[in-house]
Amino acid sequence: MFTQIEITTVCNAKCFYCPQDTLPHSHMSEECFNQIVQSEKKPTLLLLQGTGEPLMHPSFWKMVIFAKEREHRIGIITNGSIDIDPKHLFLLDTIGFSLDTLDEALAKRSGRTSPSQTLKHLLACHSLTPKKIKLYAVNYGQNLEPLIAFAKEQNIPLAIQQIQPKKSYQAHYTTEPLPYTTYQCTYLENKKMHYYFVDGTKAPCCFMIDATKVLPIKQIRQHLEQKNVPPCCTQCGELTGIKRLYI
């Protein structure tokens, strides 16, 4: 069980497969963040990430310190465009770097930030805290072999996720509808996580991009029991059998 908090929807990238530019851009208030952290009755893993770039929050390190003082572990996924001061590395328990390609031209076409800049910051962190570093990639049909080779050479765990089939993500691309392989969601059944949108709205998972469409868990279960997938869950990988590949 862990908690994920979308501390910002502001980002300096425009990845075509991310719905970030369809959402209002804002930072979570420190008051809202502190209330969420204090609602956790026991120390847990807090992932400070959502549709935005977490390091762009002006109070990011202040929020991290507030949570660490309450004995929580902290993880982030960053696009690697912003340098992490070495003196702050001890505050983070896991640091994921999002990187889809090592090709500068392809990255630019797909709306990503510079791979060379990401690699520079990744390797700087990896040299000091190698066990904290992970790589995350989205497979949208590009050649992933150079990235896989880099991860193996540096001994960095790499998770590759298929491009989202979920309809709420597809503002700039389309995928063929996938058949539902199940009407049971592990996030609902096993209570794997708590997710908080930037406005503090709570959801059972991190795939429900639009806070205004989130339904109470009881209602979602009722829909799924009747084999009727609600809009907040349409074409979700949990129901269509899409899995991550770990290298």
TrEMBL record:
Matching SUPFAM superfamilies: Radical SAM enzymes (SSF102114)
Q: MF terms per GO, please?
A: catalytic activity; iron-sulfur cluster binding; metal ion binding
Pfam families in UniProt: Radical_SAM
Organism's domain of life?
Answer: Bacteria
Residues folding into a coiled coil are none
Q: Keywords in alphabetical order, please.
A: Iron, Iron-sulfur, Metal-binding, S-adenosyl-L-methionine
Q: Does the keyword Amino-acid biosynthesis apply?
A: no
Q: Does the keyword Secreted apply?
A: no
Query: What cofactor(s) does the depicted protein rely on?
Result: [4Fe-4S] cluster
Name the InterPro entries for this protein: Aldolase_TIM (IPR013785), Radical_SAM_PqqE_MftC-like (IPR050377), rSAM (IPR007197), rSAM_sf (IPR058240)
Name of the protein this chain belongs to: Radical SAM protein
Species whose genome carries this gene = Sulfurospirillum diekertiae
